[in-house]
Design a protein that fits this description.
Length: 83
């Protein structure tokens, strides 16, 4: 059964009054088996960029560069937006 839960887990919580709650996840959100959506990546990036005090404009510009990174000629395009 360990192979089945390679990236997941089973959790059971037992309360003091005897109740029990269980949940099983075989492939969590963002795992290799399920992948990850750009919207999830963008949301996390925006949250972290705000904590780093990156302006909203630079955040959005850098997200655009990240989405099109395969076509970027030089990584300095992204680095300059992160300063």
């Amino acid at each position: 059964d360990a192979e089945h839960f390679k990236q997941g887990a089973r959790v059971t919580i037992r309360t003091r009054d005897g109740r029990s709650y269980a949940s099983t996840v075989c492939a969590p959100k963002g795992s290799g088996a399920r992948g990850i959506e750009w919207a999830d990546v963008d949301a996390k990036y925006r949250t972290l960029a705000a904590l780093a005090k990156l302006s909203a404009q630079r955040t959005e510009d850098s997200i655009k560069v990240i989405h099109e990174f395969r076509d970027v000629n030089n990584v300095s395009q992204l680095v300059s937006l992160l300063r």
